[in-house]
């Protein structure tokens, strides 16, 4: 490449940065209006929620998408529930006009939720949720007792691996143990991740079946105040838990969290781990050992690894094996790493959940999809912010208008991922199911006629 071209490119990149920097950080209605005007992927969003019913096929349920509840939270905290849309254009017009600070997705109801009162008066149509993705909501603030770098809604690259663990464990199990294929993971914009299981089988689950699936993932017994949050019972671990432990939890605990969270770096932190050991004698034996090696030659960096090794050796040594301590090492690892789900969200069809591609008001970050196959690489601090995107739009402003403005921003890779890795395979499956169901119906009516 000639020097001149290199120089020209450098200038270009520099200019783009300058223009990008010209949009100050923030979140407000003016920014949001541009985002909804130019970047929000209405078409893909609508196609997702229509699940193939927006096609011309005679087997399509034309009322399907119009029975889905969306809810908008407006700037002044006005909450508009039970919004519904028959077409992508209607959805787009409404979002552009109302400029919601937050969009939530609810269930598909038996009737159009916007007309629920009219139906109630007519008395012959019950307004009930009939379909809903199986969803999981995970907040990193639920891990405050096992992370020392941040607390509350804050998160950093030291504690984010706790969310990576959630994705790995749940995604593997939802696919392998439950046979689901169309799973969407979304960054919540600030403190966690959302999971949408979109297979038609998942959407049709009853509340009882949802509860059963949520319970499958539950290892935390007892309340908030119970010291021991995990109890692994029975002679052998359930295969799902055993696999989670060896494939994910153990490595994350030993290779990452032990050091990044400095889990054994203070008396208080050690004490918290010792409290998970049911045998007082063993706990005090370790406590004494660690009191001793505080003064020993172990450097600050090694203290976590060294104490963890001592704990494992002590608990797994021959003399303690029979005392019900066999599980204790695993229980400690589970306590510090295993996914903590907000069960209520998963159990009920009518729970609302924030839509992907919303902007989080506090961080200004887009709720982008996360690729579960590369979730280790996901960096929440690198997710595009509203102001960054507007800066990129400005910088691209001089170029010829493309049909999709998002193609000229860092939102592109997320929309492409949503489209090619999630939406297209899912719509293909929806189409096949729809055609199968339709031809079965035709066959049935043919049989009835010939009879
Ligand atoms: Zn952190």
Automatic annotation (TrEMBL):
<keyword id="KW-0639">Primosome</keyword>
<keyword id="KW-0479">Metal-binding</keyword>
<dbReference type="GO" id="GO:0003899">
    <property type="term" value="F:DNA-directed RNA polymerase activity"/>
</dbReference>
<keyword id="KW-0804">Transcription</keyword>
<dbReference type="InterPro" id="IPR014052">
    <property type="entry name" value="DNA_primase_ssu_euk/arc"/>
</dbReference>
<dbReference type="GO" id="GO:0005658">
    <property type="term" value="C:alpha DNA polymerase:primase complex"/>
</dbReference>
<keyword id="KW-0235">DNA replication</keyword>
<keyword id="KW-0240">DNA-directed RNA polymerase</keyword>
<keyword id="KW-0548">Nucleotidyltransferase</keyword>
<keyword id="KW-0862">Zinc</keyword>
<keyword id="KW-0808">Transferase</keyword>
<comment type="similarity">
    <text>Belongs to the eukaryotic-type primase small subunit family.</text>
</comment>
<dbReference type="InterPro" id="IPR002755">
    <property type="entry name" value="DNA_primase_S"/>
</dbReference>
<dbReference type="GO" id="GO:0046872">
    <property type="term" value="F:metal ion binding"/>
</dbReference>
<dbReference type="GO" id="GO:0006269">
    <property type="term" value="P:DNA replication, synthesis of primer"/>
</dbReference>
<dbReference type="Pfam" id="PF01896">
    <property type="entry name" value="DNA_primase_S"/>
</dbReference>
<protein>
    <recommendedName>
        <fullName>DNA primase</fullName>
        <ecNumber>2.7.7.-</ecNumber>
    </recommendedName>
</protein>
């Amino acid at each position: 490449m000639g020097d001149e071209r290199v120089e020209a490119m450098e200038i270009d990149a520099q200019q783009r940065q300058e223009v990008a920097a010209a949009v100050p950080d923030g979140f407000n209605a003016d920014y949001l209006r541009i985002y909804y005007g130019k970047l929000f992927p209405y078409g893909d969003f609508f196609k997702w929620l229509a699940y193939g019913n927006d096609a011309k096929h005679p087997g399509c349920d034309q009322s399907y998408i119009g029975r889905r509840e969306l809810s908008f939270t407006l700037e002044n905290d006005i909450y508009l529930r039970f919004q519904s849309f028959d077409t992508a254009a209607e959805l787009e017009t409404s979002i552009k006009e109302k400029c919601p600070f937050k969009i939530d997705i609810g269930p598909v109801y038996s009737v159009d939720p916007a007309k629920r009162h009219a139906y109630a008066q007519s008395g012959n149509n019950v307004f009930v949720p009939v379909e809903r993705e199986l969803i999981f909501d995970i907040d990193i603030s639920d891990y405050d007792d096992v992370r020392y770098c941040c607390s509350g809604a804050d998160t950093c690259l030291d504690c984010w691996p706790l969310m990576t663990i959630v994705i790995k464990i749940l995604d593997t199990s939802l696919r392998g143990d439950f046979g689901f294929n169309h799973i969407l993971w979304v960054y919540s914009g600030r403190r966690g991740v959302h999971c949408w299981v979109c297979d038609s089988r998942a959407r049709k689950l009853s509340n009882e079946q949802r509860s059963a699936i949520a319970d499958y993932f539950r290892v935390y017994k007892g309340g908030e105040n119970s010291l021991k949050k995990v109890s692994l019972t029975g002679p052998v671990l359930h295969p799902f838990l055993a696999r989670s432990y060896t494939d994910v939890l153990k490595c994350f605990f030993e290779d990452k969290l032990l050091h990044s969270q400095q889990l054994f770096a203070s008396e208080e932190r050690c004490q918290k781990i010792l409290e998970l050991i049911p045998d007082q004698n063993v706990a005090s034996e370790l406590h004494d050992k660690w009191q001793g090696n505080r003064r020993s030659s172990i450097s600050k960096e090694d203290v976590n690894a060294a104490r963890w090794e001592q704990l494992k050796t002590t608990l797994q040594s021959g003399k303690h094996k029979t005392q019900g301590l066999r599980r204790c090492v695993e229980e400690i690892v589970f306590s510090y790493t295993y996914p903590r789900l907000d069960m209520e969200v998963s159990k009920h069809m009518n729970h609302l959940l924030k839509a992907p591609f919303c902007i989080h008001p506090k961080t200004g970050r887009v709720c982008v999809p996360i690729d579960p196959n590369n979730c280790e690489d996901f960096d929440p601090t690198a997710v595009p912010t509203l102001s960054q995107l507007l800066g990129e739009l400005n910088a691209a402003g001089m170029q010829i208008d493309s049909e999709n403005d998002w193609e000229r921003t860092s939102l592109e890779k997320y929309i492409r991922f949503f489209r090619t890795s999630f939406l297209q395979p899912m719509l293909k499956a929806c189409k096949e199911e729809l055609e199968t169901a339709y031809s079965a119906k035709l066959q049935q009516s043919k049989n009835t006629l010939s009879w």
